[in-house]
Amino acid sequence: MKGDRLGEFEELTLMAVCAIGDEAYAVPVQQFIERSTGRAVAMGAVYAALDRLEDKGFVRSHMGEATQVRGGKARRHFVPTADGTRTLRELRRVRDRIWRAIESRGNA
Amino acid sequence: MNLPAWARAVLALTPARRRGDGAAEDLAELYLWRRRRDGPWPAGARLVLDVLSLRLNAPRGGSMLTDMKFAGRLLRKHRAAATIAIGGLAAAIGGATAVFSVINATILRPYGVNDPSSLVSMSRPAHGSWPYWPYAHFLRAREAAALTSLEGTVTEQIRVSLSSGDATAPRRLVTFCTGGFLPLLGVTPSMGRVLGPPDDQPTAPHLAVVTHHYWTTQLSGAQDAVGRTIWINSEPATVVGILSSDFSAPLAIQPSIYLALAGYDEVLLRPEFRASTMADVEVLGRLRSGATLGAAEAELLAILLAQGAVRPPSADAPFQPVRLFSAASPVSGADAGELYAGVAFTLPILALVLLLACSNASNLLRATAAARTREIGVRLALGASARRVAKQLLVESVLLSLIAAGAGWLLAVWLSPALAMAIDVSPELRVAPDGRVLAFAVFAAVCCGVLSGLGPARLGSRGDVLSAVQARPVPDRAIWRTGRRHGAVVGFQAAVSMFLLTIAALLAHSAVRVQQLDLGFDADRLLAVQFSMPRKDFDQQGYLDAAVAAMRRLPSVEDVTISQTYPFGPLREIHRLQAASRPYTVFGIRSDASYFRTAGVDILRGRPFTAEEVSAEAPVVVIGGSLARDLFDGADPLGRSLSEAALENERLPAATIVGVAEDTLASLPQSERFSTIYRPLERKRANPPGVLLRTANPATAARHVERAIAAIDPNVEVTTALPGERVEAVLRNKRVVASLAAATAGLALILAVIGLYGVTTLKVSERMREAGIRLAIGAAPKDIVRMMARQALLPLMAGVTIGLLMATLAASLLAGELAGIRPLDPLSLPAAVIALVLPAVLAVWIPASRAGRIDPLTSIRQE
User: Fold this and answer.
1) Among candidates B26, B33, B53 on the partner chain, residue whose Cβ is nearest the Cβ of A42
2) ipTM of the complex
3) Assign residue B725 a region: left if phi > 0, alpha if psi is -120 to 50, beta otherwise?
4) Which of A33, A58, B275, B744 has the most CB atoms around its CB within 10 Å?
5) Residues of B with CB below 8 A from A43's CB?
6) Using CB atoms and an 8 Å cut-off, which of residues 46-75 of chain B contact chain A?
7) Closest CA–CA distance from residue B386 to any residue of chain A (Å)
């Protein structure tokens, strides 16, 4: 199932992981996407997207320290890989190019 | 973390493979954050959705959803087989759901009243547990009872019309209730108001509350229906309220209209409830708060005993004289046992038909599982667990039955009103499927799915990787083993459908025979008139003479007779005896001399009795033709004594036979022989006799008669009945039972034939290779066909035999229902066997003959 293409939701998830930085685990990622898109996001979708991103090599995960708040259970933290950040940048460049084209025609 | 218990329970449903990721803790954290931000309800809802989403978005293949998708693709691929299996299941689930929705409407659905748990019905065990009490006793009990509030109702069938003077309007059930009845139930009307105590005053105008069904069907659901006038027995009444659609009355029968009891006299012109009379009312009550059923019952018993209304239990009547039953729902009342018995009779038959459909679906799935050994082998080799494969196969069968349930649901929606109409369910009860019926259909579907999937799932998960991947032929022993199981399935299906077909054939033949039976009298030209007269100081004979004279004066009346019993009437005189070593049922009719002319009974020999003999109550008798033949062995019975001829039947009267008449069918005929004896009226009799009239049109004559004799004495209650209608009702009932049985049996037959076809096709495909080898080494094609056919035909024949045996056993239990034929009817039994065996043999022959036409080379080379 490996590939380097990103679905829309995967892209959002990856961007959220980058934006949050060191503290990225499922809960803030979900909250971030919900806040920035304004649409309700199911946790199941977040986990599935994070799994796929890890399968594709765009993020890496590790279990963090056990915290008191969570009844002594650890969190699974996610960090973007170099591949991940590069793909995001590449995507952004493609988009920018297309947007420039759209704007030069005066349609937007 | 501070989580409520329910949230912890929901979190426990987090899939195991997400636990390691700390998903449960993540969700808990999110829930607490949302609860602070949005409040507990939205946060709770989101938590449930999140857990669901975890279940649906499983990380790797193997979720329910993928299984479902895959199953859907497979069913599309095996479209023909799937259609057959789904069709069978849909018919079975649809039929079962339709029956269940009728059971639901009549028994399971609550009454739609306020706090049903404290409703009670006051019953009288000495009178067959019926909640009917003399009005006078009811009034006293209501006055004195501190623990229960009691209300009474009387339900009558009355002509109700929407315009004045419509004499042909249909009769409807109208309940006259005491003022507190509807408030006691706590009914909220959907429009207007209900009746209250002020409406139940002799001076109050007639006000009516109608049911939702009456409003929609008769008042066409008009928004201005409240305030309209309807005519009840030509008496105008104003509609003041319409009951809501979920209301049904906790009464023995479901009325369409409610009126105040105070209006009873004016509407029915009978002075029943003007004073505290002994006429019966149905009593319903509500326990006051804090009262228990036992305490309330003891209180009512004490009240009624003190008033002398009931007697304490004695050796003659060992019943407790008052019982209170919960009236919370139809199954909680006094006759709950009867209802359960009805359900207990229906459910096994439904289960049998569902099982038939399941075994069909199971066969289909087993066939696809067998054909997919290779695919399953590959999956096992790639690391799928046996459980995983079994789950996939199970999901397939559940999907199959869920699709079938969808189709069955549509069938049930269409079928249930027809079924309800056929078995005379009150139209007031909404039979249309509701949530509970939907739950039943889904439950039935899942049960069917799991049942039909278990076999194939076991077969699939036992999969042996090597032989599957190398496409080795299935070992012979395995074929033999599955062969035995298939044989059992075929035998089972054949036995069930043989059983149902035989019963249906017997019932159908009996219905036809009853239709053709000569009643021996002109039922459709008769009108019966019954009187209830005051017992004390009343000149019965004088009244009867006056009434008969008044009836004779009517131009439409051809003849009039006074008789104590009449065919299909409410009272019967029955003698059971042996004649010509056969059980005999002899109906006794006691009448005056003109009975034979009036009822149209022909005298075959001798003469009828004379008016003089009647007035002297002479010991003479006219006997039925078949009794004359069987008691006297062909000798002339005239002039002999009836008791002398039948010594062992001492109960037959010692009377001289003066004539032989046609036999009269006096009630629902049984399978045994019957005859009739006619004797003069008794002088000392327990009940006043009735009058039979001969007229061209009994229905119209009924109104003339009622009008003509109403004036003679207002203290006499006159009721008319149409024997022809009663006969028709009995016949209709038999036809309905027969056609329901035929429909069930037809369904079972179709399922069995489909099943046989499926099994034979499967067996033939399994043994293709063997057939090829046999053909290659010189077997004749017809031997191959015979070999293939035999493996289905042997269990088929075994099943037919077992089914037939069981059916004959059941038929002897059903003998009472099988009028006009014997339980071992020489026409029905062979017909049922042919009906099953012919299509069954065809269903075996068609796939079996395919085996004879195969090309040996291709079949051996296959994979």
Assistant:
1) B53
2) 0.83
3) alpha
4) A58
5) 23, 26-27, 30, 50, 53-54
6) 46, 49-50, 52-57, 59
7) 24
CB neighbours of residue B863 within 10 Å = 8
What is the Cα–Cα distance from B272 to B717, expressed in whole angstroms?
10
What is the residue type of B60?
R
Question: Residue A56 has which token pair?
Answer: 């594709």
Residue B567 CB partners (closer than 8 Å, separation 6+): B519, B521, B523, B587, B589, B599, B664, B665, B666, B667, B723
Total beta-carbon pairs less than 8 A apart between chain A and chain B: 61
CB-CB contact of B471 with B705 (8 Å): no
- Give the model confidence (pLDDT) of B720-754 as tens digits: 788 887 777 777 777 777 777 777 788 888 888 87
In B551-644 the beta strands, taken as DSSP E runs, fall at: 557-563, 573-579, 582-591, 603-606, 620-624
Q: What is the pLDDT of residues B817-828, one digit of tens each?
A: 677 777 788 888
pTM for this prediction: 0.62
Q: Out of A43, A63, A71, name the one closest to residue B26 (CB).
A: A43
Alpha-carbon distance of B443 to B440, in angstroms, equals: 5
Which amino acid, one-letter code, is at A104?
A: S
What is the Cα–Cα distance from B435 to B444, expressed in whole angstroms? 14
User: B824: helix, coil or strand?
Assistant: coil
- Segment among A46-60, B307-321, B792-806 with least mean pLDDT: B307-321
Q: What is the third-level CATH fold of A8-104?
A: Arc Repressor Mutant, subunit A (1.10.10)
User: Residues B750, B596: contact at Cβ < 8 Å?
Assistant: no
Sign, CA dihedral B292-B294-B295-B301, equals positive
Annotated domain spans of chain B: 5-59, 79-110+347-472, 116-328, 523-723
Domain extents for chain A?
8-104
